[in-house]
């Protein structure tokens, strides 16, 4: 079976693309070990952190280890107790323990968001 000139050209391009991909993969693995690559992916410029004090339930659900029920509890806790002073205050929310907090911490921050309704009811805005 003889290949046409066009088929040979397509085959050559495919081989070159595969070879380039393999070389690029090797270069990336050498230049960025897995931990370095993960730091690059987690860079704040690529993925800004979610602010616990202003995030909606939907925004919170984008954070690893936070599903719809946990997002609802975080927002409810914030509305009742006021803004989070630190990310570690998430441990006060039912369902968030040390293990899930370790997963969540790189993706959230406790910014200087607005005080919630609970804070304006004389609760001092403390979580």
What does this structure look like?
By secondary structure, the protein is mostly helical. The chain folds into 2 domains: 27 residues; 72 residues, DNA polymerase, domain 1 (Orthogonal Bundle). Helix content is 47%, strand content 3%. It is built from 5 helices and 2 strands. Strands 1-2 form a two-stranded parallel sheet. It is elongated.
Q: Tell me the total number of β-strands.
A: 2
Work out the helix count. 5
- CATH fold title of the largest domain: DNA polymerase, domain 1
Helix fraction by DSSP (H/I, runs of at least 4): 40-55%
Task: Supply the number of structural domains.
Answer: 2
Distance between the termini: 75 Å
Shape: elongated
